[in-house]
Amino acid sequence: xxxxxxxxxxxxxxxxxxxxxxxxxxxxxxxxxxxxxxxxxxxxxxxxxxxxxxxxxxxxxxxxxxxxxxxxxxxxxxxxxxxxxxxxxxxxxxxxxxxxxxxxxxxxxxxxxxxxxxxxxxxxxxxxxxxxxxxxxxxxxxxxxxxxxxxxxxxxxxxxxxxxxxxxxxxxxxxxxxxxxxxxxxxxxxxxxxxxxxxxxxxxxxxxxxxxxxxxxxxxxxxxxxxxxxxxxxxxxxxxxxxxxxxxxxxxxxxxxxxxxxxxxxxxxxxxxxxxxxxxxxxxxxxxxxxxxxxxxxxxxxxxxxxxxxxxxxxxxxxxxxxxxxxxxxxxxxxxx
Amino acid sequence: xxxxxxxxxxxxxxxxxxxxxxxxxxxxxxxxxxxxxxxxxxxxxxxxxxxxxxxxxxxxxxxxxxxxxxxxxxxxxxxxxxxxxxxxxxxxxxxxxxxxxxxxxxxxxxxxxxxxxxxxxxxxxxxxxxxxxxxxxxxxxxxxxxxxxxxxxxxxxxxxxxxxxxxxxxxxxxxxxxxxxxxxxxxxxxxxxxxxxxxxxxxxxxxxxxxxxxxxxxxxxxxxxxxxxxxxxxxxxxxxxxxxxxxxxxxxxxxxxxxxxxxxxxxxxxxxxxxxxxxxxxxxxxxxxxxxxxxxxxxxxxxxxxxxxxxxxxxxxxxxxxxxxxxxxxxxxxxxx
DNA sequence: AGCAAAATCCAAAACGTTTCGGGTGGAGGG
DNA sequence: CCCTCCACCCGAAACGTTTTGGATTTTGCT
Lengths: 337, 337
Fold this sequence. Notes:
2 copies of one chain form a homodimer.
Chain A: H1 4-11, H2 15-22, H3 30-42, H4 49-56, E1 61-66, H5 78-93, E2 96-100, H6 105-108, H7 112-119, E3 123-127, H8 134-141, E4 146-149, E5 158-163, H9 165-178, E6 184-188, H10 194-209, E7 219-221, H11 226-239, E8 245-248, H12 251-263, E9 273-278, H13 281-285, E10 291-295, H14 297-312, E11 320-323, E12 325-328
Parallel strand pairs in A: 1-2, 1-3, 3-4, 4-5, 5-11, 6-7, 6-8, 8-9, 9-10
Antiparallel strand pairs in A: 10-12
Helix pairs in contact in A: 1-2, 1-3, 5-14, 9-10, 11-12
Chain A binds a DNA duplex through α2 and α4.
């Protein structure tokens, strides 16, 4: 493979000159520069990024640590959208992206910090991490620049991007209240996600705002799983048939709830209103199309990469980015009969 | 950052010994090895993969070149599933994955080969490439090991993984024929995809097998776009109302066709049967659920990575992998009325 | 004790770059 | 003619590893 040395020999100059010529330094004669560039093209030279990174101590690479990169993750396109956003930004800034495998047990022995240090990534974006994940602690301890998606962490080197989950869920509740609903239940996700707490807070606030009380038995845990939510909803709706609306902490769970309702002969939205959260692709394709509060995952990914770079470059003390969300009213909500 | 030199100094040995100790060579005393390992842990040493790769000329990294990594790509989960499969395999083999940005115009100046050489990836997996893409020619010319998804290319260093697209479409046609359909149209994709030709061949063969003739005006080009397919289908179905079934070269296009049919008051599947291709997530969630021929994209990704590694290691002369497909009969096909 | 073999260690080169601290030669100014 | 300055170039060190080819010490055997 062609190296800078080869060029130097062919051009009859030193490697220093070749390096400086190719990198646009001013202290090299235009004629020699031309000659060097021609030879470089001739022998199909491309710089060895490894060697360069080694000496410059800069890899132009950021790492991606995603938990949901498994076979099941495909149903919601969230991970993918975020990835796309990150990729977009990295393209503009000429950064490369390396995916870390956290799935396999083999790598589990290696700590988060080790992975990053070995590969010498300049920073990391972490997605889909649960708050009881051991990696999380490590992020605090290590001083590797990183930004998390939907996990509020702030430090010298760490930031996050998220949406206003409290407000998001309040939007859903308000919408239902406007439609005349009073007996509103909530299908929340598991506690290992930070957003769950926020969304529950939004639920409480929304209910209080409307002068309604939240009944403990009416908020349940669907674990962000379609199947689980269906099962739980089945029990909930048979035990408390007076419920006329249920807000869900994810679209997938909302689909489960809809299925459960229809299994009980309660047609959605006529006999039960349901709202989701996320606005995954499925949401608008399914019938009835899901009313849901949408998040722009692409933008979140893009913002995450942007924030990470600004942390890397000590541009500002900013450590959090808030992306807007929006209630998308579709066909799973309707006035209370 | 801790280096092997630091350890050497602290342990009172040479860097050679540290290196050999840490890498499990037998010619180092067990006591010194213990000591070295302790110190390594103590000062949080992790090896510099850059330096190692530089001298070993081996990066344990494969590159990923995907064309569909854009915002629109999210609807079909294909790219994501493939990625997941690749990621899975790489995890097992302790390979890292780097994503190349081919989207932005900035990087377009850099050729495919340059990207790979710079980053010193050992091989590449290419996905979603069109056959008029300039990258394709480069793949032939460069001798960088690579495997393509759904593009039949074989050379010393290149291979591919695909499914039997001819047979796949034949399965769909056979199914429709068994249901009594005779006036069958095809919604194909654009010519820039290799699979289009194959699927058309399957259509022809299937029709011939059933003693039916294919009418040229009845095979149209939906360009793998939902919107375009809808528009084209609208024209097709109004011009030729005698059509009772249409096979599509992708699920997204099938969705467009279904929409067009319903817009014309032809309820699917009662008044029109439609089949898709790919079995994307949407296919089973949409109503009516799409009858489609399914491909296991995860397995394709996994197989691609597997094949690439076997090429890298000169394990065998094998240059192609064929993954099975399967007809999934759901609710968009029915006996001809 | 003498000697070969085994065990343990090390110095130095190499990988391909960048960068620091000069060096050389000629032009311009006095 | 001498001095300074500028344009252009170079040698060598450095980045953090691995590996080659010994060198030294210890062990085992007669």
